[in-house]
Design a protein that fits this description.
Two copies of one chain form a homodimer. Chain A has nine helices and 39 strands. Chain A is mainly β. Chain A folds into three domains: 144 residues, Nuclear Transport Factor 2, Chain: A; 112 residues, Nuclear Transport Factor 2, Chain: A (Roll), CATH 3.10.450; 320 residues, Copper amine oxidase, catalytic domain (Beta-galactosidase, Chain A, domain 5, Distorted Sandwich), CATH 2.70.98.20. Chain A has a 19-stranded antiparallel sheet that branches. In chain A, strands 12, 13, 14, 15, 16, 17, 26, 29, 32 and 33 form a ten-stranded antiparallel sheet that branches. A five-stranded antiparallel sheet of chain A has the order 6-7-8-9-10. The longest helix of chain A is centred in the N-terminal third of the chain and has 14 residues. The first copy, chain A, starts with 5 loop residues before the first helix and ends in a 6-residue tail after the last strand. The N terminus of chain A is likely disordered. Chains A and B meet through strand 11, strand 19, strand 20, strand 24 and strand 27 of A and strand 11, strand 19, strand 20, strand 24 and strand 27 of B. Chains A, B: This is Copper amine oxidase.
């Protein structure tokens, strides 16, 4: 993941031709090209868009889901466009903030980067639901870039209540920070200048670069090399900022596989302070040899001491198009009949057959015995709230907290790279889903929005909801007299975020609901890996192409699961299966090697950092110890890895992430839920990883976990050592992990018995089938039009943006922005 | 899993009214009711069957798969009916065997229990495939029951070549045994007498039983109690056989949930020797109190010392029918619209659209770039051979070896129960699959056969083959200029075995093939659990109903995966991701906390017993170290847990299984493949677990694993502590595990790029969609008839049997036999 790009660079170059100016454009958080690109985009309104007359919903099923009536307004909903404009206008009215409109701002101004909903405190929400309090006031949070100083910072504020009235205020959001301050030092305020500086460094050794890797990086449209490096930046001392940079080849085709084209030449910059005249090149690395100055590097080159290494160049191998059989890399492939349409799932009932209800306005969903609300944020994307099962809340909140992609390498760039993705945000990059591919064409699609750089952007059709036959039964039993079977129909809530052009681009998030009362959280990754130059990197990955190493890395995605079992007074039960050697009243004094179940509770947060047990012999359940079922077993929900086993970070005490990786040291965490600890990580942590706004380690202060509001935090992901099969893209099928949250002594029987999609056939060898019981189920019949399974590919379109300050809601425009 | 049953018992009672007779019917291996029931079944030929005029294939799609032409005859195929008859006739001609026809035999005769294919040695097969040897001769293996002695035994023979000629011979199959002998002592030859004995014991305390649990077990049709106990039998000394027994209530409804109805009264028998007059009741257990004689038990009862405990009686709760919302156990369920037909997968192309080829005669399949043969055996069911990918063999053999279900309990029956399922066999119980439920109606169905008790039985439609859209993409990448997506279509080979009425009844075996070259082995379990009486069993499971404990147990299913990478000279690579603290040429002398990849090979079988690593930091691959790819990385296939994480048995040195559980001590094993070590377990082991025919531990003799024919053995399964959600049946959705066998540096790119089911959409914020590339793919269109997704439920029918001795192929009859 990275922030610079040829397009961005071009924009920067246009606006800021000289480094002499103190006013340079800022590369804002989110580190996107938003602000820079917007200036050129206003002229393209939707009305002028080619193809705008096409039906967006394609030729797929046009059925809309029956309407649900949400019992409460969605109080976790993202800000509406009007709310965002309201908040932004309010902040611009605060003289103390000295704000510049984002569209006009530079790195030396103060400006608003992000506004989003400040989620209400659970305490207030539950009081409201219980009728014991009025509806919680609605608040926004706003992130403001303070650039008018030698020591720039980013700060998060609470703004509200909204809508803005005379009683609305703003205040630093310190209470949700473990360090007591929502202020984060900004050491990367002048990234645009750093990029410019890099071009100058490159120009100073153009002859060497031409010789070694043959390309140019000057910030012009004809560049075939790009320069970027570590993330987060490095601090050899608290007041020093250094960054290793390297060269990447810019693909000439549409395929943005630049991260497959590292060139193997590295240099280190001291970028301390805001004045580039104080910056310096600290050294160079080539062929695993370090040169402590540009002069030393040049001298070695002139002396002929630099070896010619394997080159790493663009080719068809970085493209994701159909390659076809019997190419050089597809020898002996036939793929007979792969051109024919494969099986496809269809909705038998058409418009009248949809078996779930949606309140689109409130993003509220009812499917079988589940109901829930959907929320969406710039930082972490899709999030579910108030998941109820058979009328009882089982999960208050379920969603992503943070995603680490921690690399390693013999080279300084891969070694120094450990992305904290909420910094970039999952919300801005949850692009439109392609009906018929990302989700069935019969799915219900919802839009999502985020508000950055004073522009509100709407991703059309970026969440989908659909039922799916999983392809295997949920229940089956047969003998020589009967057969009983029940279909395993699941309900999926899906979004896909493409956070940059590296490995888990795209990250697919599925929340899947099952008829047995289970919820599965699934993460899948596909897309281009961020690779390394092969030289001397053999201990950090496989060589996967000429000049290329599949740079090893860990993906570690933390989720919050605030499970509530019959209220918020819950405990975390630990039931472990242990081998034993025992004698029994009936064993004649002899011992038996057997096993038994040992039950205990996780006493306090001191024991709340948990690894999944060896051989999975430990079961963990959130239970309400005061609510036993009829047979004395406490009712609860179990949490256990589904696919992939759960994970934590391999690297211990990461030098890159310092105090910002404390949620990735274990597989699972249990803490006491507090209003002041809503998030385990923070999107601003990446600005200063040694001094994060939220250090998850501080959540652990030894409080009891018995009959209190327990919240779980679990990691999904994978240790990824890319091999040749990751070219051109990693595939979802092998890069996935999931967690299963399932009832455990919660009801008195398997709830899938309550669906009518069950059939029993009684038969007899002599008489044949005697009885068929179908329990009132209706069956598919008649014709369906398979053309509906194919989308209108030409209707695909980008995000819709609306300018916020000055507010210009009448002139939306297409504006799709990705990190490439 | 158990062998007695009311029906069986009734049959036994008819034939053997007195214990005085030395000639009693045998309960043969397989411990089914085959022989006993067959006598009553011959009169029901197919022609007379009600409903026989119905089309068997139902109303589903009638398309048959295009015909493949297998390059070789399936040399792993099961015996045909004629071959089985040929072998059986040959054995009956051997005077030394002194055989009685199975249909007339008793426990005191010699008779044939099973004939099956003796799989050819891999060495011979590969020589044949390579054109260096002629086709291997075909042989059968035959299991013979030797009952005419005080020390009965079971023995396995090699018979052939077949077809039988003058040069055909038979010989004890000693060479495939680790103990050097295919002879297994039979301590359960007189199980029918044991059952009869139990009825007498029960009758002797009928007054107490009536008082405590209110029922009768006399072997008559009006019985409402059943008696059975531990498995395998116990040997306090090598020459003594004892068995704990308990009472189970026989359901009056069709639902065979007898294993949910344990009654909590136990007695121990000494069943040493074949003369019931020498047998004895050793003691009783009730309410966790042991009585060392029937008299002592009676005295306690008469003294009023026996407490009245919770009863465990039949009710709707053991039925699997639709229960409906708002029953006492389904409170607050609505399941809105569950009667409407859910989404269903359809084949767009109809007859012309099937994208795989099948050679039905040879059970040979071609799908995309995979080809393979299917085999089937009485012991372990479905098995795949010679799986080739893009023309190269990657797996020689893939299939189930053995399945343990190891229970534990405070009571002697659950404590003493540890099933070895190949003893019962997966082949006999792989019943017909219900099209539209077990598999799509558009699947290709294959029949399977097994030959037991001189009857050949054919399971109609017991294997299915189908393509399935997994519901998520295999590849996805997008940015602000384009979107590239590829469908994740998988190919599934499925069978379901219902081995008894306990927990993984039904066990579903899926072998799933993916477009990235991966193969996933998936095991799922649904059905009735074998439970325990609740009293004093709290440390061995949850109380899940009045009087009922969900008896804790481990399912441990061993699979063989004989992976071949470019020949049989292979090594097992271990690549481990380890945290490191390192300095680098560029790190200015400072250390960095990072990670690296350590590569090694598993040197020998001494290191061949392997646990999946903590945090999954170790990757294991079978590679050909002499066949590096273009970039120097050895080509290989990785093996890693998919769902559920892989597992091994919790109990160490199981007192129940003794030397017959050595394949369940670790997650994964690697050995040198040998012709004399074809199987890690043996169906006859259960007869004498201390002296198994195959003790897997003996495979480990320190041989090198480097560049030799490595074979892997891996365990799947689950630790199952049943909770209320396992009532009435455990559900597949939470009871599943899988192993993924996937290419690792095997090809030079992701092979899913070679399917045409890829779409690329190029778009632009200003111009909209500019290009749609579909790579020659055809798209679904036009109408399809959804009625085809529904099967003809009335066409379901049982197994077809053919009597073998005397051979009577003209009179097949319906005969479905389950272990209930």
């Amino acid at each position: 993941m990275r922030f610079s790009s040829p397009w961005f660079v071009a924009s920067v170059a246009l606006v800021c031709a000289t480094l002499a100016s103190a006013k340079v454009p800022r590369v804002a958080y989110p580190k996107s090209k938003q602000a820079a690109r917007i200036r050129n985009k206003f002229k393209h309104s939707l009305a002028h868009r080619h193809g705008a007359e096409r039906s967006f919903t394609g030729t797929g099923w046009q059925a809309s889901a029956p309407v649900a009536d949400a019992p409460f307004t969605n109080i976790w909903a993202g800000l509406s466009d009007d709310e965002a404009a309201d908040v932004i206008a309010f902040l611009h009215n605060q003289p103390a903030l000295n704000l510049t409109a984002a569209g006009n701002s530079t790195a030396w101004d103060n400006s608003i980067t992000v506004v989003d909903t400040l989620l209400p405190n659970k305490t207030d929400v539950l009081a409201y639901f219980a009728g014991k309090a009025s509806k919680p006031d609605r608040y926004a949070r706003a992130t403001i870039w303070f650039g008018t100083t030698e020591n720039p910072w980013i700060q998060e504020f609470q703004v509200g209540p909204i809508p803005i009235t005379n009683s609305s205020t703003y205040a630093s959001l310190d209470w949700a920070s473990t360090k007591g301050s929502a202020v984060q030092r900004n050491y990367i305020a002048d990234d645009a200048l750093v990029t410019e500086y890099c071009y100058n460094v490159s120009a100073s050794v153009q002859d060497i670069i031409t010789d070694l890797i043959n390309g140019t990086a000057m910030g012009g449209a004809s560049d075939d090399l790009d320069i970027w490096g570590i993330d987060p930046v490095w601090h050899p001392t608290p007041e020093t900022t250094t960054q290793w940079m390297t060269f990447w080849r810019i693909p000439s085709s549409i395929f943005d596989g630049e991260t497959l084209l590292p060139q193997g030449l590295y240099f280190e910059l001291n970028t301390t302070g805001r004045d580039p005249s104080g910056w310096a090149v600290l050294g160079w690395l080539y062929a695993d040899t370090y040169y402590n100055s540009t002069n030393a590097f040049r001298a070695a080159w002139e002396a002929g001491e630099l070896p010619k290494l394997e080159s790493n160049v663009e080719g068809d191998w970085i493209g994701t198009d159909y390659m076809g059989p019997n190419t050089d890399v597809g020898a002996n492939s036939t793929m007979w009949a792969s051109e024919k349409p494969p099986p496809v799932q269809v909705p038998p009932g058409g418009e009248d057959g949809i078996r779930y209800k949606v309140d689109v306005e409130n993003k509220y969903v009812e499917w079988m015995d589940f109901t829930f609300y959907i929320s969406y944020s710039r930082d972490t994307g899709l999030r579910l709230f108030d998941i109820r099962y058979r009328g009882e809340r089982i999960v208050y909140e379920l969603g992503l907290e943070e995603a680490i992609a921690h690399y390693a390498g013999n080279d300084p760039v891969q070694s120094g790279t450990a992305y904290l993705d909420s910094f970039y945000g999952f919300g801005p990059y949850a692009f439109q889903l392609l009906a018929g591919y990302d989700c069935p064409t019969y799915a219900t699609f919802l839009n999502t929005s985020f508000h950055a750089d004073e522009v509100s952007t709407t991703h059309l059709n970026s969440i989908c909801l659909f039922e799916y036959d999983t392809g295997y039964l949920i229940q089956r039993h047969s003998n020589d007299r009967y057969l009983a079977v029940t279909k395993n129909i699941a309900f999926v809530v899906r979004s896909v975020s493409t956070v940059g052009n590296y490995d888990y681009n795209s990250t697919q998030f599925d929340y899947t609901f099952y008829l047995d009362g289970s919820i599965e959280v699934i993460v899948r990754a596909s897309g281009y890996i961020q690779s390394a130059y092969y030289y001397a990197n053999g201990n950090y990955g496989y060589q996967i192409h000429s000049g290329l190493s599949g740079s090893m890395h860990d993906h570690c995605l933390l989720f919050k699961a605030d499970i509530d079992i019959l209220g918020t007074s819950n405990s975390l039960a630990n039931h472990t299966i242990v081998p034993v050697t025992e004698t029994y009243p009936w064993s004649h004094g002899a011992t038996r090697n057997s096993m038994r179940l040992e039950r205990s509770y996780v006493a306090s947060e001191d024991a709340g950092k948990i690894m999944w047990s060896e051989n999975a012999q430990t079961m963990l359940m959130v239970v309400n110890a005061d609510e036993p079922n009829s047979f004395g077993e406490p009712r609860g929900y179990r949490i256990a890895p589904g696919k992939g086993g759960g994970m934590h970070l391999t690297v211990t005490n990461s030098s890159n992430l310092l105090n910002s990786q404390s949620f990735a040291t274990h597989d699972l965490y249990a803490t006491v839920r507090k209003d002041a600890e809503p998030r385990a990580a923070h999107a601003l942590n990446n600005y200063d990883v040694a001094n994060p706004i939220i250090d998850f380690a501080d959540f652990f202060d030894g409080e009891t976990l018995e009959q209190t509001d327990v919240v779980l935090w679990f990691n999904l992901g994978m240790h990824h050592v890319p091999h040749t099969g990751d070219l051109p893209n990693t595939v979802f099928s092998t890069a996935q992990g999931s967690m299963l949250i399932s009832p455990h002594n919660y009801l008195l029987h398997d709830p899938s018995r309550d669906t009518r999609q069950t059939v029993r056939i009684d038969y007899d060898d002599t008489k044949g089938v005697e009885t068929v019981k179908t329990f009132g189920a209706e069956f598919s019949k008649g014709a369906t039009n398979l053309t509906n399974t194919v989308p209108d590919f030409w209707a695909y379109r980008g995000d819709i943006a609306v300018r916020k300050f000055p507010y210009d809601p009448q002139h939306p425009f297409n504006n799709t922005v990705s990190i490439v």
